[in-house]
């Protein structure tokens, strides 16, 4: 009976073994015991750094001032008889602005002329008398004293004629001063006097002011330290002077818009202000439409020089470490990520000008750098936006764009 019982369990044992084998095979097919597949390499977008010539400029604050300024003052005393200009209008050099009452000056001129005529009428008889005394002196018909008195009288008569000639000239000049004229062409402001006002010669208060606005001056300030830095860069070759366009200046208005006409750098002052450590640069700007008025605040974009081998990189490819230092990630020849510590010069449009930290030919990561770390192996592809236009200002831009 034991043998019969043992035989009845034999098929069950083989069934259990077969089921276990099937479970084991099913587990292998579902992944148990198999090595996981390696993760794909991260992909980053890079741009190859290439040197290029860049025109470097700096923005300096300043104010406008009139090219010529003339304060109108009377040169004789009198009553203003008439004002002959419209306030705020353009006047020409020599144009009559005020008429001072000429009557007393006309009387003085007529009186001087009459006295001159009288002196001139007396001169011939006195001269003839002196000549006769000279002839009589030879025959000793007159004394030497009489002859000397006749010569002195002639000299006195000539001097009197010269005196009254000068008086006539002075009276004529004073009469001309009653017509107050414009010494320069320009725009005249408001008048400080009206008809009937009493004015005195060379009074401290001006009658009006004329300002020539075309062209106009723009006076900007630059620090002496900045000037020394520029000279040092020119001497070391980091910058080269642009002789053809180095004196051209762009003007930005106080609302940020660009002035349509270029100015010309006239000179740099030779004295540094001890209080501010800066000096004045004077720029001459065309102003035919009188858009610029004296006293306006503007910014002048002055050229520093040409950086022949400038390295420009997109700003999105530069980040900062916890210390605030600018850093960048590059892909080396082996396809590994390397970190670089940068020195930035300035922003030019949407790019940074690099002073140190990168070299020409290196591949800078501009997209995907958040997914990689230094020493990681990556797949580098060209940046699709590498040729996209940039919003470069007239201040600093690649040389090809500024010409």
From TrEMBL:
GO terms for cellular component: plasma membrane. Signal peptide: none annotated. Residues 215-305 form the Multidrug resistance protein MdtA-like beta-barrel domain. One of its GO terms (molecular function) is transmembrane transporter activity. Residues 69-211 form the Multidrug resistance protein MdtA-like barrel-sandwich hybrid domain. SUPFAM superfamilies: HlyD-like secretion proteins. One of its GO terms (biological process) is response to antibiotic. This is Efflux transporter, RND family, MFP subunit. It comes from Desulfobacca acetoxidans (strain ATCC 700848 / DSM 11109 / ASRB2). The lineage of its organism: Bacteria, Pseudomonadati, Thermodesulfobacteriota, Desulfobaccia, Desulfobaccales.
């Amino acid at each position: 009976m034991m043998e019969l019982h043992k035989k009845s369990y034999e098929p069950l044992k083989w069934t259990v073994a077969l089921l276990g084998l099937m479970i084991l095979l099913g587990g292998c097919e579902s992944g148990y015991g198999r090595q996981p597949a390696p993760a794909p390499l991260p992909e980053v977008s890079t741009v190859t750094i290439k040197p290029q010539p860049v025109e470097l400029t700096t923005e300096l604050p300043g104010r406008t001032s009139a090219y010529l300024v003339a304060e109108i003052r009377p040169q004789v005393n009198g009553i203003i008889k008439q004002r002959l200009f419209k306030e705020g209008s353009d006047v020409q050099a020599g144009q009559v602005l005020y008429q001072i009452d000429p009557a007393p000056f006309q009387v003085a001129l007529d009186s001087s002329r009459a006295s001159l005529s009288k002196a001139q009428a007396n001169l011939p008889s006195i001269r003839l008398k002196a000549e006769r005394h000279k002839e009589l002196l030879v025959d000793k018909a007159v004394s030497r004293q009489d002859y000397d008195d006749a010569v002195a009288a002639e000299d006195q008569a000539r001097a009197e004629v010269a005196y009254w000639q000068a008086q006539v000239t002075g009276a004529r000049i004073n009469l001309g001063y009653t017509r107050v004229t414009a010494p320069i062409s320009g725009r005249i402001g408001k008048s400080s006097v009206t008809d009937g006002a009493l004015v005195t010669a060379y009074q401290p208060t001006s009658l009006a002011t004329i300002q020539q606005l075309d062209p106009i001056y723009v006076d900007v300030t630059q620090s002496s330290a900045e000037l020394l830095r520029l000279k040092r860069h020119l001497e070391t070759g980091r910058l080269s002077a642009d002789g053809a366009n180095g004196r051209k200046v762009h003007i930005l208005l106080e609302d940020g818009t660009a002035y349509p006409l270029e100015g010309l750098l006239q000179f740099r002052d030779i004295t540094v202000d001890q209080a501010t450590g800066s000096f004045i640069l004077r720029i001459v700007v065309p102003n035919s439409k009188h858009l610029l008025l004296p006293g306006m605040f503007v910014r002048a974009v002055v050229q520093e020089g040409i950086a022949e081998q400038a390295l420009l990189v997109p700003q999105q490819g530069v980040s900062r470490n916890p210390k605030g230092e600018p850093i960048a990630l590059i892909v080396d020849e082996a396809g590994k990520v390397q970190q670089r510590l940068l020195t930035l010069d300035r922003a030019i449009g949407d790019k940074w000008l690099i002073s140190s930290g990168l070299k020409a030919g290196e591949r800078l990561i501009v997209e995907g750098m958040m997914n990689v770390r230094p020493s990681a192996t990556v797949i580098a592809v060209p940046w699709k936006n590498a040729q996209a236009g940039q919003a470069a200002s007239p201040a600093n831009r690649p040389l090809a764009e500024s010409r």
